[in-house]
Amino acid sequence: MINIIVELSKYILIVMVVVYAYLCFGVFAYRSPEAKKRILTQQNVLMFLMHMTAFLVMYLETSDLKMIAFYLMQVVLFGATIILYTNLYPKASRLVVNNLCMLLSVGLIMITRLNYEKAMKQYIIAAGSIALSLVIPVIIRKLKLLSEWRLFYGGLGILSLGVVAVLGRVSYGARLGFTVAGISIQPSELVKIIFVFFVAASFKKSMEFKNIVVTTALAAFHVLILVASTDLGAALIVFVVYLTMLYVATHQFLYVAAGVLSGGAASVGAYYLFNHVRVRVLVWKDPIAVYDKGGYQVAQSLFAIGTGGWFGMGLFQGAPDSIPVADTDFIFSALAEEMGLIFALAVILICISCYVMFLNIAMQLHNMFYKMVALGLGTCYIFQVFLTVGGVTKFIPSTGVTLPLISYGGSSLVSTLIMFAIIQGLYILREDEEEDIERRQREKLRAKRSIAEDGEKNGKKGNAAEREKRSRQRRPEKSKEKTIR
Question: How far apart are CA 472 and CA 466, in angstroms?
Fold first, then answer.
């Protein structure tokens, strides 16, 4: 009986996540707030049903009551997140909140399947980070001087990365961060956000060539420190984010072409300088040929995706444990093996819908600084998704970055939740701007009506005075006529 339930559950899970992903884009077709609210509520229902189905299967497979307890804890967290955001910030984007909870629930399902203790740690970090993120929209909305702290952002980012490059511990060939009281801290995750603020503040200050050269030099310094730490995934993200923001701010294709050429030259240099990079390139070319010399991880990832097929093996029916670091860098492979490729593709579509919202907010903001921040954070998010999925599917060489909100990792989770909270703050600012524009338009319309009404009144008064004057002129003539008679 349990086998039948497990087999049926994977199809149910696929249907629910596909419908959810469809609604992520379908909601844009509706203008009515009531219709949008109905669709967003349907998304919540689908998310909670999917979450419940997955944990029911895991409980049946393990017969462990802590699965039920952990499930209820997560329901409280997701329910509280949705209720608090919608009540504290009525203008916040409900779709962004829904997607945040959906991706986080998928991540907790897979991490629980792989390692219950790590899933519990992830839950605690998520709960604390969400509590912190609830304050961020207020800061974004109220603090008007964020665009003036350019030197602070640049100095803090370079200092943080420099400390890691000198004192950080080495993990998988790269200096990523520190371990404090058993907690791993990776500063580069937060530096990506600070870097976006630095570039946005710099471009808002001036778009003169001299300022662009200085900004580019400081951005290159960020990248060089990350390359020196062999944190090539973060270096690539910072590089692409800067090129995107530079092109949107200047509309100069020449800058992008120069950046791509210099980036290509730097990649060739990294290939010859770092053995760690050469191994990843060789693995990308043919993981089977170097199976015992670094190709094992990518090969197992491809085997897992191929074994799962379109519909997956079902929870606890595959062998994702055979993939090294399956709960962090290669969680997409574990997801595809047990939940199916259709499920995994639907998750990618949900990530893309988040990016669409980020771009939508960026395009509608009028303030240059906030526009650049929304664009930079959106690019940072979606490019990290691309690097993760591309690396595990052998589309590009593996870069060792995590899948935002889904992979295990405290620093990555905290930075992504902060990123989403900043986007919510910018969305609220956009709503405020639209309300302010509408209010000004109403005031102008009232002023025009008032002027028109005054003109009409003055016109009526003038006409009445003219009639009175004419009548007075006629009266003496009539009196003279009477006298003559």
Answer: 10
**Which of the 8 DSSP states describes residue 181?**
T
Structure tokens at 349: 């579509």
Q: Which of 113, 56, 104 is nearest to 318 (CA)?
A: 113
d(CA 203, CA 289): 47
Instruction: Please write the tens of the pLDDT for every residue from 194-221.
Output: 999 999 999 998 888 889 999 999 999 9
**Dihedral, 474, 477, 479, 481 alpha carbons, nearest 10:** -140
Q: Is 455 exposed, middle or buried (0-12, 13-18, 19+ CB in 10 A)?
A: exposed
Nearest residue to 192 (alpha-carbon basis) of 418, 10, 7:
418
How far, in Å, are 33, 47, 141, 174 from residue 42 at the CA level? 14, 9, 30, 43
CB atoms closer than 10 angstroms to residue 86: 14
Angstrom distance (rounded) from CA 141 to CA 440: 20
Contact 164, 229 (CB under 8 A): yes
Task: State the pLDDT at residue 180.
Answer: 63
Residue 321: DSSP 8-state: G
At 188, the pLDDT band (50, 70, 90 cuts) reads: confident
Token reading at 338: 């047990």
SS3 of the chain: helix, strand, coil, percent, to 5 = 80, 5, 15
353, 24 in Cβ contact below 8 A? yes
Give the span between the Cα atoms of 219 and 215, in whole angstroms. Answer: 6
Phi, psi dihedrals of residue 170, rounded to the nearest 5°: -90, 130
Structure tokens, 105: 């629930």
Question: What is the reported pTM?
Answer: 0.88
Kindly state the helix (H) or strand (E) to which residue 290 belongs, with its residue range: none
Stretch (H or E) spanning 173: none
Sign of the alpha-carbon dihedral angle for 47, 49, 54, 59:
positive
- Give CA 175 to chain center in angstroms: 26
pLDDT in tens, 136-180: 999 988 888 888 899 999 999 999 888 887 776 766 656 666 766
E strand spans, 362-449: none
